[in-house]
Amino acid sequence: MKYSVIIPVFNEEKNIPALHAEVITVMNNLGQPYEVIVVDDGSVDGTAGVLNTLSPLTVIRLRKNFGQTAALDAGIKHASGEIIITLDGDGQNPPSEIPKLLTVMEEKRVDVVSGWRQERHDPFMKRFVSRGAYGLRSIFVKDHIHDSGCSLKVYKKECFNEVDLFGEMHRFIPAVLAWSGFSIAEAPIAHRPRLHGKTKYNWKRVYKGFIDMLAIWFWRKYARRPLHLFGGLGLGLIVGAILLFIALFIKKFIFHHGLADSNIPLLAVLLTILGVQFFIFGLLADILIRIYYDGPRKPYAIKEILTIKK
User: Fold this and answer.
1) Quick one: average pLDDT of 188-209?
2) Residues 76, 200: one domain?
3) Per-residue pLDDT at 82
4) Averaged pLDDT for residues 289-303
């Protein structure tokens, strides 16, 4: 299998038939073996019934709505193609741009090509939030991608050999792969307005995305050495406590000042306790990281997998 096209969908019964037809036309023109995988992320409208009428198609149905990241992870792990192609199920990513991304991948000899929606057809608030997210990513993530939120991307399959997606992590996949040594490129693509349904983008996703951005930042810097962060903070607090105890000793026994009305002894004891707690927390985090690398878990459940042929 040369290509695997993965499309996560949630309540897209009116958009998916036309999108599927476009994808099939584009992939047929490439003249290479391919598969189309649609991950139904717990849709509660007529999406499931519509998918049963389309072919060729592989449908992965999740037991409930686990989110776009989980749906992508399920599709990627089931894919058998050498090249993974992802796009949204709302039809705003034109499948006709897929050959452009594949050409960039071949010409630049990179592992990932991310679409860049230079002229977006989205509501003002969504575009405004995306610009703010880009500024935060440049500080915390530093993925050097203008439009990491664009779902139209192409990857070499080996990019995901040791990557598990969670939370709202789909926005940060290029960054995670870049930290692992994979090469990334961008390609400007067209963007279309949504014709049917409504966007799933809301303040909850913004909030979760920001939290996940901080988690990604932590993962990049301390994933293999959490003790360096928490243990270092703990030792710093303990050193501060020791300095306070020395100052108290000098004040009490050299300058003969009373300590009864001072809060400094309580502060020194508090810093000592916090320092010990942070250091122990660092040790526990280090143990948990080792357990994670020994056996990752999937944060979603698959209900069924159907293969619909011509």
Assistant:
1) 69
2) yes
3) 97
4) 64
Encode pLDDT of 115-166 as tens digits: 988 776 555 555 555 555 555 666 666 666 777 778 899 999 999 987 878 7
Which of these, 61, 48, 33, 31, lies nearest to 304 by C-alpha position? 61
Residue 277 has pLDDT above 70, yes or no: yes
How far apart are alpha carbons 304 and 302 in whole angstroms? 6
- Tell me the average pLDDT across 69-93: 93
Is position 305 within any domain? no
Residue 158 amino acid letter: E
> Does one domain contain both 61 and 152?
yes
Q: Where residue 165 sits, what CATH number does that domain have?
A: 3.90.550.10
**Tokens for 64?**
């409930």
Contact in structure between 38 and 60 (CB atoms under 8 Å):
yes
Predicted TM-score (pTM) of this structure? 0.72
pLDDT-derived band of residue 204, with 50, 70 and 90 as boundaries?
A: low
Same domain, 108 and 217: yes
Domain containing 138: what range? 3-223
Question: How far is residue 207 from each of residues 165, 213, 228, 251, measured CA to CA in Å?
Answer: 18, 10, 28, 49
Q: 233 with 216, same domain?
A: no
CA 38 to mean position of chain CA atoms: 19
Q: What angle do CA 152, 113, 301 make, to 5 degrees?
A: 50
Query: Closest by alpha carbon to 157, among 69, 78, 82?
Result: 82
Rounded to an integer, what distance in angstroms lies between the CA atom of residue 167 and that of residue 67? 8
How many whole angstroms separate alpha carbon 266 and alpha carbon 257?
17
Identify which of 114, 102, 100, 95 has the alpha carbon closest to the alpha carbon of residue 19: 95
| Kind and range of the H or E run holding 189 | strand 184-189
